Amino acid sequence: DKDKLQSRIKELENISRELEIALISYNNSIKNFEKVYENNQNALIMLAENLNNIKTTKAALSSLKKLPDSFSNTEEFFAYHREINQKYSKIQDDEYNTKIEYNRIQSELPDTTYEEMEGELRDAEKRHLRFLNQLKTLNEIKRAFNETKLEMASDPMKELREGTDKYLKSITSGNISIGNMDENMNLKIRGRFNNRINYSQLSEGSRDSISLALRLSFIENLFKDGGCFTFFDDVLNDLDIYRKKEAIEILKQFSKKNQVIFSTCDLDLAKKLGGNFIEVR
After folding, report:
1. In the 8-state DSSP scheme, what is residue 187?
2. What is the mean pLDDT of residues 154-165?
3. 23-27, 123-127, 167-171, 220-224: which is most confident
4. What is the end-to-end Cα distance of the chain in Å, rounded?
5. Closest by alpha carbon to 61, among 71, 47, 75, 74?
6. 35 touches 43 (CB < 8 A)
């Protein structure tokens, strides 16, 4: 039958084409094999090596610990492992940054040690306490002064004026006295015969006598019961021998109720004043 024959020919042609394609594929495979292995002996050697590697890998895998029960598969385990590594890396970064910040802060610290600063703090606290005590004393002086001023409202400078006059007359043997004193402590000075004397006419010794008398009277009025701490710096240096002798006796009497510190370069004067000596060289 012609139709059957033609159909068979087409079928055989298709088979032929498939065989040609397969042949080309086999030839390519052979070429690739020869390119990689060169010959059958090399292929067998590489096959043996691969089989040995497989055996070694299986042995290594069999020695691994079992996956923890908290992980259902290896992907979960490796994901957890990556997370732990990230956290560890962050901790290392934080530690590094902390060390840098520590070194920066340490470089900014003062050279003074903690113990030295602690000592300085104690000294500052002591100074602060002294200042508070001084402030308390000054407030007490101010209060006493204001009370005294109120008590002497009609003549606020009376007691100070009379006290100054008393000491000045004693020191100068009556040659100089206080005629008047206003609230600004401006003085009118009189001589032995009640004659007015200008301050510019006075000698250094007379000026020092007035200054000493005024200080003694001022302290005496503020600290009526005594207890004042006062310092005199060589205030008798320009007084003549008679006034100096009288001033020494006045200071001795004054020191019985008050704490007096007197500085001088005159050793003979220091001995005449008496009291406790501190020699500074």
Report:
1. E
2. 84
3. 167-171
4. 153
5. 74
6. no
3-state SS string for 59-115? HHHHHCCCCCCCCCCHHHHHHHHHHHHHHHHHHHHHHHHHHHHHHHHHHHCCCCCHH
* Among the listed residues 224, 219, 230, the one whose alpha carbon sits nearest the alpha carbon of residue 259: 230
Number of other residues whose CB lies within 10 A of the CB of residue 94: 10
Say how far residue 86 (Cα) sits from the centre of its chain: 40
- pLDDT score of 231: 92
Q: Specify whether the CB–CB gap between 168 and 213 falls below 8 A.
A: yes
Q: Is 223:145 a contact under the CB 8 Å cutoff?
A: no
- 115-to-71, 94, 103, 121, 129 alpha-carbon distances in Å: 57, 31, 21, 10, 21
User: Nearest CA to 163 among 147, 148, 153?
Assistant: 148
The pLDDT tens digits for 28-80 are 887 887 777 777 787 788 888 888 999 888 888 777 777 788 888 888 888 98
What's the Rg (C-alpha) of the chain?
58
For a pLDDT cut of 70, what percent of the chain falls above it? 97
Neighbouring C-alpha atoms within 13 Å toward the C-beta of 69: 0
Contact 213, 247 (CB under 8 A): no
Q: Is the pLDDT of residue 195 over 70?
A: yes
With contact defined as beta carbons under 8 Å apart, do 225 and 217 qualify? Answer: no
Are the beta carbons of 204 and 238 closer than 8 angstroms? Answer: yes
Average pLDDT score, the chain = 86
Cα 149 to Cα 182: distance, rounded to the nearest angstrom: 13
Place of tokens 């240096």: 237
